[in-house]
Amino acid sequence: MLQMRDAQPVVVRREDYTAPAYWIDTVELVFDLDPAKTRVLNRMRLRRNPHVPVQPLRLDGDELNLARVLVDGQGASFRMESDQLVIDALPDAFELEIFTTCCPIKNTKLMGLFVSEDTFFTQCEAEGFRRITYFLDRPDVMASYEVTLRANKAAYPVLLSNGNLVDQGELPDGRHFAKWVDPFKKPAYLFALVAGKLVAREQRITARNGREHLLQVFVRAGDLDKTEHAMNSLIHSVAWDEARFGLPLDLDRFMIVATSDFNMGAMENKGLNIFNTKYVLANQATATDA
User: In this structure, are 207 and 68 located in the same domain?
Assistant: First the structure.
């Protein structure tokens, strides 16, 4: 695999793999979404990997403004080495709190958190999560996530992330919030966030085990009439997974977001797939198989 650092390719070889010095068990993220200055509060529970020699914690970051680092609620000394946040002399298990800001409207790399046509998106595969917060941004580090999104309600009435919606409500000054919990551990590259003016086609289904699920296809208002095929495909795929592999949907809902300006074509984030419209939307009156 080739990684780009300052326009210079760096070769990463599989035979050079080493296990991480720390594991991350839980992640609590709070986003105050603003195109020019988004604030991200990141609280993590970490533990030392006993199978790796004791060494500093090295967290990946890219174009972040670091404001605060706390270990178990106390200020901690740290240093920056290139794009990595390095912390020494840590206990075997601890809570780490990191507060950063970023500028999504100027994120022209379209990796991490960015804004396109007044909508927030994320693209974290392969190494985009480090542009959201400092993290062990590698696929063998898996954690459960709790995510709170806060934003202006008029500008961003829909707030989406991975998992189950457990709370939502109003905030002062015309703002609102939504809290999402994904209890199933995932790597950071499957994290997703979408916020904007969207409408949804919805369908409730009942699994073989009797559990009800909500399926949603979110689009901008002018595309709602093109979502029937996407919804039917989603219903069939959920049923096929259950019938063929005995794997029912593990979350309360499954969401697809389709917009014309998503740069990656498609990204199969856990419970929140994001597509470019040309790959998923169709109107029976005009579309063909050609």
Answer: no
Residue 232: give its domain's CATH number. Answer: 3.30.2010.30
Q: Is residue 9 part of a domain?
A: no
Count other Cβ atoms within 10 Å, centred on residue 274.
Answer: 25
The contacts of residue 236 (CB under 8 Å, 6+ apart) are none
Asked whether the CA dihedral 250, 255, 256, 257 is positive or negative, the reply is: negative
pTM of the model as a whole: 0.95
Structure tokens at 98: 């990191």
| Residue 97 shares a structural domain with residue 185 | yes
CATH number at residue 149: 2.60.40.1730
- Diameter over CA atoms, the chain: 65
Q: Which domain holds residue 204?
A: 199-279
Amino acid identity of 7?
A: A
d(CA 186, CA 199): 27
> In terms of domains, do 71 and 116 share one?
yes
Tens of each residue's pLDDT in the chain, 290 residues: 445 455 577 788 999 999 999 999 999 999 999 999 999 999 999 999 999 999 999 999 999 999 999 999 999 999 999 999 999 999 999 999 999 999 999 999 999 999 999 999 999 999 999 999 999 999 999 999 999 999 999 999 999 999 999 999 999 999 999 999 999 999 999 999 999 999 999 999 999 999 999 999 999 999 999 999 999 999 999 999 999 999 999 999 999 999 998 888 899 999 999 999 999 999 887 777 65
Question: Is 8 part of any domain?
Answer: no
**Whole-angstrom distance, CA of residue 264 vs CA of residue 121:** 11
| DSSP summary character for residue 210 | S
